[in-house]
Amino acid sequence: MDRIMDGVPVFIFGAGKIGREYFSTINHFYNFVAFVDNDEDKQSRGYLGQAVFHPQALTNYFDKRPLILIAASPQHQKEIITQLGEMGFEYGRDVKGLFTFVTHELAEEVFRREEQVFNRLCQISLTERCSLKCKKCAHACNLVPNTRKDLTLAQAISSADHFFDIVDYSQEFVLIGGEPLLYKELDQIIEYIGEKYREKINIFSITTNGTILPNEKILENCKKYQVTFRISNYSKSIPRLKEQYKKLMELLDKWDMKYLISDEQVFWDYGFDWVDHHMDEAILKQTFEMCKTPCREVQENRYYFCVMAHTVSNNMYDGKIGQGDYLNLDSLKGPEGRKAFFEFEQGQLKKGYLDMCNHCNGIESQKYVLPAGEQ
């Protein structure tokens, strides 16, 4: 496809972790030229197979009004903005923060210019069963019996097909649970998505609590389709998991697999079991607007704005809350259907909120910090 603003050269300033996470997405949509970094060693070695320019080289592109996306911590971002400002590049026009740009501007620009649909994060909850029973689980999986039926493989495949029938590119597509390694057909759904849709995904990942080691077939498919393991770290509440994490990481290292293990985590108390806004529409709209979670979920033809709203409704409230709080993907036809999807993705909901917002603290949940993984 033709890239957006083909005549505009695009650079990522920062040849590091943040740049790595978003490089493929930027390269997919834009005329990416090179990384930029003050580190002379990185300039000589390159990064991710790409050139790394000295910042001064950007002046050669000044007349073309390049887009320079800063991939750095907030502290270093300020320093880089000042550095680029002294070279004549203007923040907000020529220079933008990479994370903020992907979060707030990319989807709108992609749709406006190319009528393509960009998604930041979508998940398939393959199973609500879990190998742990964490208090205050954000998906309420601690309430799910081991007898609960998982998605069938056909349902999981249908979910991926419905999603990618309309989405042109996803920053991250995640297989989650519960604990996804309890899902018996995990290797098969990895293979299906990897074979059919990998080029539409920047990061293809599995989120695991680390209690179960993947079998050889799962590892083979994860290796083949470049799947990243995201390991939730609950070792502070469950010390025995430290040894289990070590075994998992050693196994993934042996297979030369990508993985990320979080720092020792905390939970936020979303208040699903105690918050009640009494269906006050003003409060519900405010809660939704301040939150606008990026965590979507697809289940067959149903596209949920908030994965937690769906799973908590099922696991804590027997599905009685927000039964209609999803977008029916089968109803989306032609340009108008793509427009409806884009608007939903941007949080332009008819009611202005989700019914589960009545039982959620939203962004205010950050005030209620709890130990992660307490059993």
Describe the structure.
This protein has twelve helices and 15 strands. The model has no long low-confidence stretch (mean pLDDT 96). Helix 6 packs parallel to helix 7 and helix 7 runs parallel beside helix 8. 35% of the residues lie in helices and 17% in strands. The chain is an alpha/beta fold and 375 residues long. It starts with 9 loop residues before the first strand and ends with a strand. It has an eight-stranded mixed sheet, sandwiched between helices. It has a five-stranded parallel sheet with strand order 3-2-1-4-5, sandwiched between helices. Helix 3 (74-86) links the parallel strand 4 and strand 5 (95-97). The chain has helices spanning 17-29, 40-45, 74-86, 98-104, 106-114, 153-166, 186-197, 216-224, 241-254, 281-291, 307-317, 334-345, and strands at 10-13, 32-36, 52-53, 67-70, 95-97, 118-125, 169-176, 201-208, 227-231, 259-261, 266-268, 296-299, 302-304, 327-328, 369-371.
